[in-house]
Amino acid sequence: EVQLVESGGGLVQPGGSLTLSCAASGFTFSNYWMHWVRQAPGKGLEWVSQCNNDGRFRHYADSVKGRFTMYRDNARNTLYLQMNNLQTEDAAVYYCARDLIGTTWKYKGQGTQVTVSS
CA-CA to 25 of 20 to 30 Å: which in 6, 40, 80, 110? Predict the structure, then answer.
């Protein structure tokens, strides 16, 4: 059974930093592209970033480019999202995800809440 468990969210002031983690199990993590997506209150899911199976190729949404860094540790089956210079518009529930089928993520964790407020 595929499991994705996010952690690391919390409350941070504007301009602050957080690093999210996603522990993966139930599949061969190193074989898959992985993604971070987020959902702000009252909005739909927004794709944030992706990286290929070995982490060499990473892509970001324009809204986070230059501030967020996605990386992975295949030995630990863990995905990370380092978020710097957080802004109020970054507040959302963040999910790690795998396999986009049409407009639906086949696998997505339970999410971790990021709140950005002074």
Answer: 40
